[in-house]
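Morning run. Coffee first, then this:
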Amino acid sequence: MATFGSFVANTVLTAADLNTGGAWTTFTPTLTNVTLGTGSSNAGQYSIFNKILFMRGKFVLGTGGSVTGGIILTMPTGTMAVTPTMQFQPNGSVIMTDSGVNSFFGVGLQATTSTIAFYVLGASGTYTNVISSSSTVPFTWGVGDNCEWAFTIQLA
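And here it is:
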């Protein structure tokens, strides 16, 4: 696959280069503190343009599935750029859905250079705050509950 920004001077940039650069690649997301259960689903896609990783995914809990702590996603490839330090700048959006009840908006924040922690937006006092997802935040997770995300990340 061609990577934008890696072309050499005085070479021809072809349509094939542009068509393959940034193609979507499927992957199975690696999630910490999530047990998917029987009948679950877990799928993701990512695309890279130069040093920008675009990633999206979704998991749905099946029978016996659970969330036991803060949801953490391991990036499918690469590591995040850490200069300048952007730990509290959201990498993208998260939607956590209590099946048939309600959906809650959240963000993904850098946990390490290769992981993203999922947070839900809360309303406490005058301003919105971020609260780590857990077994009971934003709801008690069960069969059919799901989480979707879309992130944009600068790679090192």
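The chain has a mean pLDDT of 88. Good start to the day.
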